[in-house]
Amino acid sequence: MALDEKTLDALLAENRTFPPPADLAASANARDPELYARAAADPEGFWAAHAAELDWFRPWDTVFQWAPPFAQWFVGGKLNASYNCIDRHLRTWRRNKAALIWEGEPGDHRVLTYQDLHREVCRFAHALRRLGVKKGDRVTLYMPMIPELAIAMLACARLGAAHSVVFGGFSVEALRDRILDAESHVVVTADGGYRRGGIVPLKRNVDEALKECPQVKSVVVVRRVGHESLDVMVDGRDHWWEELVHEAPLTFEPEPMDSEDLLFILYTSGTTGKPKGIVHTTGGYLTGTYTTTKYIFDLKEDDVFWCTADIGWITGHSYVVYGPLANGATVVMYEGAPDFPARDRFWEIIEKYRVTIFYTAPTAIRTFMRWGTEWPAKRDLSSLRLLGTVGEPINPEAWMWYYHFIGKERCPIMDTWWQTETGAIMITPLPGLVTTKPGSATIPFPGIEADVVDNDGNPVPPGKGGYLVIKRPWPSMLRNIYGDPERFKAQYWSRFPGVYFTGDGARRDEDGYFWVLGRIDDVIKVSGHRIGTMEVESALVDHPLVAEAAVIGRHHEIKGQAITAFVTLKEGAQRSEILAQQLRDHVAAKIGPIAKPDDIIFTAELPKTRSGKIMRRLLRDIAESRQLGDTSTLADASVIESLKKVYSTEEEAG
Ligand code: WT7
Fold first, then answer.
1. How is 405-416 classified by DSSP, letter by letter?
2. Which end of the chain has fewer CB atoms at under 10 Å, N or C?
3. Residues sharing a CB contact under 8 Å with residue 25, sequence separation 6 or more, in sequence order
């Protein structure tokens, strides 16, 4: 778990409370206090009422069907996600409202109105069709944060193909595995993307990955950077985006999709070495993202909504693209780093576009804290009215800093707990209804039934830690793991039959507020990014000089958690700082720079039980300089003593 007991007790003693600002209590989209009780009494009715705010080509016959663990929502209904995010807004003055305000890292910018977005999505849907993409196919998108990424997603949705977005920071091998698992025939990419002034050679990575993906027939390339060195095109396979859409018609009939048809796959890390393809379907996902965006961020017609997440993660799918666009909102999208060219880039963007709602991650907030208040102080942030955070537990200090220095004590903070699997926010305040407490995600969204239970699945009393579970299905929940229903069942539905297992630990306080503590499995959150420790271990043991590796997350001031790898080498291999660096680079090449271990600790042996299981718990204790927990099951107690010694010398040296 990310936090220890002492920190936890301190957290639960947190007694500062922040009631909803009076203006929000009076005007918020969700301001009726009965909302929670009504949704709890009839969750299906609650969700159906909100699904009905979307446009359906055919109404559903049944709201909800449950053959555990397989749920179906709005069964028999037909709709199209791209139609709901675009076309329905064209009937009103919204057609000329800004849908996307995009800012490139070098300072270029573009605004697409809903009408513009419609045209670009239709043109690209034609392009995809020309390349042979049909309803039901999967298209892999490996792109920078540019408008074409959102356009490509919506174009896939328009013609009924599922997108599988692969974060642009993932390596060649990670990309290859995801293309193969999704069985994509088409990959969309860009020549490169900007990051901190440098260029990420996306297309070159695609070329490498495709050496082992014979089924891929076409690659579409956006010319983002425009360097000659990146213009290597494979004849017959590669196409420039611009050329493909050049003569395409401006309209494209949206495909009527079954509510339960696949909308997208998004890969995320789990407890095994292999990332899993999380499956989301059309009607339920759109209902969940639409409803949560409307109520949690309180979207009003003239809001400017900025979620800083990369679209390569679920947060970007749900709160850069589908949720806000389904609401007809104006979305800000930024391509680059928060410190390029200077440390006030985010605040500059808020000032420039008069952003009203800002949604970011605790790790970013802690970084801003370290950079100092002079950076936000340089900019006019008076347009802000609501703030959000997501991705990992937020420590009360960071919450208070965000509240004072960004929100100027005017803006309520929505600490939103959810997962790739849940599709939409699950535990969160509502800005006009819920009193917030720094560090707590507060209470479940209306219609969501969450609980904290013990080993036997019984609810634990207030103040006691346990497993965070969701007790009834909700529309935007994952439907499956792509191609692996057995793993889907085992991972989420077997720990407590019929109940969704989140993999997180939590406590509730006397007021029923949830305090999410972090993962209790072999998944860690590094700067909000989800990384499987097993994935990093497999990458390490793949190196020719490594015999064994055990990877854990340790507490880190800024990143939340940092990656510590304990490594034993093969006979004859010499420990050295150079080798440690090689191992870090090896992991970066296998997974991506985000998975690079912060510390590599060479050790002669790893602590194991008599049956040979590595005792990661003890490694965490060592890395966080804690008193060791129970060591009685250790096969060889001396291993721990020598490890402690190695660790403290490494610490001093490092
Ligand atoms: C894990 C899911 C979908 C959100 C982006 C990350 C942790 C997320 C919070 C929060 C405490 C949080 C959990 C969860 N998490 N939000 N507000 N407070 N923990 O999605 O990559 O699928 O990660 O992120 O541990 O299980 P993800």
1. IISTTTS-EEEE
2. C
3. 19, 31, 432, 433
Our mutation pick for probing the ligand 1 site, out of 501, 525, 535, 559, counting the most ligand atoms within 8 A of Cβ, is: 525
Å from CA of 426 to ligand 1 middle = 10
Please give the biggest Cα pair distance in the chain. 74
Closest CA to 243 of 266, 220, 227, 216: 220
Q: What is the pTM of this model?
A: 0.96
- Rounded to whole angstroms, the Cα distance separating 225 from 200 reads 10
Residue 226 φ then ψ, to 5°: 80, 30
Q: CB count, 10 Å around CB of 198?
A: 12
Helix (H) or strand (E) holding 291: helix 282-296
> 426-447: per-residue pLDDT in tens?
999 999 999 999 999 999 999 9
Atom 21 of ligand 1, nearest CA residue = 530
Instruction: Return the closest-CA partner of residue 102 out of 145, 135, 153.
Output: 145
Q: Which two tokens stand for residue 151?
A: 């356009």
Between the CA of 5 and the centroid of ligand 1 the distance, in Å, is: 20
**CA gap 368, 38 in Å, rounded:** 40
Q: Residues near 176 by Cβ (< 8 Å), separated by ≥ 6?
A: 208, 209, 210, 212, 213
Ligand 1 proximal residues by C-beta, below 6 Å: 268, 314-315, 390-393, 415-420, 441, 502-504, 516, 518-519, 525, 530
Write out 87-145 in H/E/C secondary structure: HHHCCCHHHHCEEEEEECCCCCEEEEEHHHHHHHHHHHHHHHHHCCCCCCCEEEEECCC
Estimate the crossing angle of helix 43-51 against helix 34-41, to 10 degrees: 110
In the chain (654 residues long), the average pLDDT of successive 10-residue segments reads 61 84 97 97 98 98 97 98 98 97 97 98 98 98 98 99 97 97 98 95 98 98 93 95 96 98 96 91 98 98 98 98 98 97 98 98 98 97 98 96 97 98 98 98 98 97 96 98 97 95 97 96 94 96 97 96 97 96 98 96 92 90 86 84 80 56
